[in-house]
Design a protein that fits this description.
This protein has 453 residues and is α/β, with parallel strands linked by helices. The chain contains twelve helices and 14 strands. It has two domains: 327 residues, TIM Barrel, CATH 3.20.20; 78 residues, Sandwich (Immunoglobulin-like). Strands 5-4-3-2-1-7-6 form a seven-stranded parallel sheet, with helices on both faces. It is elongated, with a radius of gyration of 25 Å. The structure holds alpha-D-glucopyranose.
């Protein structure tokens, strides 16, 4: 009997050990989920940030990938470097606009795929200090974020279409049409040297500008004629980043998804709101443009509507994630009128409704969506608040909340704290019916605030 018991124990132990080694992911630093939660807190609460894609591509004004799309050489692209003169660059204005729109953090492209550095790097001449701007534009940006109380983020492109050692691959502007040509084109190019350059520049960015809150490294495309972790030296790079900036939050494009701490959050790019439900329970941030391009694109005219933009923010929050919305400033260094108009709309909505965004997440399952209209729920456990975002406004003045009987203490519109009376549904006592005014409040998506018992 005793022997049997021991044998059983040994088998169980073996099984547990095997499962752990099979399913446990590798870890670089060995942080616990609780420690990560603390580190991620500001990000989890914020829900809304501003992405800024700004570089030489603002001059051609036809996509930040213009060098690749039009297969330009360094010589052809040089004209943008020579012309760059952002006379209206005023990052305090950017930061004030972001703050007014309700954004809590900013992420700026310190270098995009074109290789041009907005910062004063000692490892290259291809930088803002050598243009007519004559100064470190990143430093001014960092100071501006801090002056407005915004968290500071850097985007740094792993890809570099200007560096002489960066090997030509399948996304490079000089991509050849045959395999043989790759070899001859890449003779003399040395990714070891590029890796050192990349590492040195990331080190500069994380050493010379004080505390950096979030880092976006972009991007990996492993496989044939692509690049991934070995090309970037991703494991060593992330170790260095975390050592230099222990609190920093890092995106997931280093090709280290099999490490628990090879990234901090996922980055669904330009996805539809409906697709965001599948990220529930993870750390994530959807990155979105106003119109399609990240860099300033003069002739692109399919801009998202106010409703589509609010939908992205609300639906992100309602699924426990963040929205980082991009502005591509002009070559003069300003937000164009379309971006400014869209951000003004956010400012108006967030002024009245931001309580339904900050520190909120998805509602527990017991709270169902209202009957018969399109809506989303956000929830703030600490304040015992449930927010109903009315994507449709009931024409009969009634909002039926199924199964809410006995759960609500008080109800009001969030935008003006005006009371909304409610009672149990006469036909179905477990439902609650809220009485809404026939006139919709002056917000694209009004919010009902329920104070829970
Ligand atoms: C992609 C694009 C890039 C943009 C980024 C933002 O990786 O290459 O232009 O910066 O997405 O998510």
């Amino acid at each position: 009997m005793k022997r049997n018991f021991t044998l059983k124990n040994v088998v169980t132990l073996l099984f547990v050990a095997c499962s752990i080694s099979l399913f446990a992911q590798k870890s670089i630093l060995g942080e616990t989920p609780q420690q990560k939660q603390v580190r991620m807190q500001w990000f989890t609460d914020a829900h809304f940030g501003m992405f800024i894609h700004w570089g030489l591509y603002a001059l051609p004004a036809r996509h930040e990938w213009v060098k690749r799309y039009e297969r330009m050489t360094n010589e052809q692209y040089q004209t943008y470097f020579d012309t760059f003169d952002p006379v209206n660059y005023d990052p305090v204005k950017w930061a004030k606009t972001a703050k007014a729109a309700g954004m809590k953090y900013m992420v700026l492209t310190t270098k995009h795929h074109e290789g041009f550095c907005l910062f004063d790097s000692k490892y290259t001449d291809y930088k803002a200090t050598n243009t007519k701007a004559k100064r470190d534009l990143v430093r001014e940006y960092v100071n501006a974020c801090r002056s407005q109380g915004l968290k500071v983020g850097f985007y740094y492109s792993l890809i570099d279409w200007h560096h002489p050692d960066f090997t030509i691959d399948r996304v490079h502007p000089q991509e050849p049409s045959s395999k043989v040509a790759y070899d001859s084109l890449n003779r003399g190019r040395d990714m070891n040297r590029y890796r050192t350059y990349l590492r040195n520049q990331v080190k500069e960015l994380l050493t010379n500008y004080g505390k950096i809150d979030i880092l976006w490294l972009d991007f990996s495309y492993p496989g044939e004629n692509g690049k991934g972790r070995d090309d970037w030296g991703s494991v060593e790079l992330i170790k260095m980043v975390r050592k230099l900036q222990p609190g920093i939050i890092i995106n997931n494009r280093l090709d280290l998804m099999d490490y628990t701490d090879g990234y901090d959050f996922e980055t669904p790019e330009q996805v539809k709101p409906e697709e965001l439900t599948k990220f529930k329970g993870k750390y994530w941030e959807t990155c979105q443009t106003f119109s399609g391009s990240w860099g300033y694109y003069r002739d692109e005219n399919t801009w998202k509507t106010e409703r589509q933009l609010l939908d992205l923010l609300i639906t992100s929050t309602a699924n426990g994630g963040n929205l980082i919305l991009n502005v591509g400033p002009t070559a003069k260094g300003e937000f164009d009128y379309r971006a400014t108009n869209a951000l003004d709309k956010f400012a108006y909505w967030m002024h009245a409704n931001s309580d339904a965004i900050y520190s909120c997440t998805y509602a527990p399952d017991e709270y169902a969506l209202p009957k018969g209209i399109e809506a989303r729920l956000t929830y703030k456990a600490s304040a015992k608040r449930l927010y109903v975002h009315l994507f449709d406004y009931p024409t009969d003045g009634k909002l039926t909340l199924p199964g809410y009987s006995g759960k609500i203490k008080y109800a009001q519109f969030l935008n003006d704290d005006s009371e909304l009376k409610f009672q149990s549904d006469k036909e179905n006592a477990s439902d609650v019916v809220l009485q809404l005014p026939t006139q919709k409040p002056p917000y694209e998506i009004p919010v009902v605030e329920l104070i829970l018992k």
